[in-house]
Amino acid sequence: MTSAITSPFDIGESVSLAFDDQRRLRIMVPRELLPVAAWLYTDAQPNIAVLDRLGATLQRCRSEERTLVGNGCQVDFVNNIVVLESRYGRWPRKIVPQSVFWPVLNGLRSFLVAAAADPALARPADYPLAVPRIFEERPDGGQKPYFVDYTYFPPEWSGEEVRAAGNGAWQSPTAVRDLETGVWSGMWRGLELAGYFDPATGEVLTFFPVIAP
């Protein structure tokens, strides 16, 4: 495990994954793949079971030409490419060959499988149980249905508790923020929150729970 510094991302010549001391992903990618790193961090959870459900949904989106709307990004498959769009305007539309996209996603799964036995990744006894949910949305007006993949705070939490978690994570000493993609992460009572912010203003745009290993 590596120590967290100021950003969840590092720039390198290839894709590399690690966990920091807070059980959060650190992702190294070539600079041109930073939007992919952002998508991995906020929309693909570092949990094998949740990731497998995402993978199955993505395969269905590809075969049925559906859109997948996630916590922070929108994914579309067009011929042999993947189109990644930030739902919060954090980067221009990114075109990624499927020959790059799938190996990166499968690499995350392989990393999680290899790290699964690490006792440092064990959840604390009082770990808040966030809820992942994938569902189909059927818009009015004859538009094509699409899939939604969100993570939700524990259902017993009140709105005030959710706001307190967001503020606490954003202001926590372990918070990390990436100025290029707007991705941020912080810890609140053992639960990682991730989201997007506007680097120009410092405004938090959104936050949501991360499903731990």
Automatic annotation (TrEMBL):
GO terms assigned for molecular function: endonuclease activity
Domain of life the protein comes from: Bacteria
The protein, known as: EndoU domain-containing protein
Protein's organism: Amycolatopsis carbonis
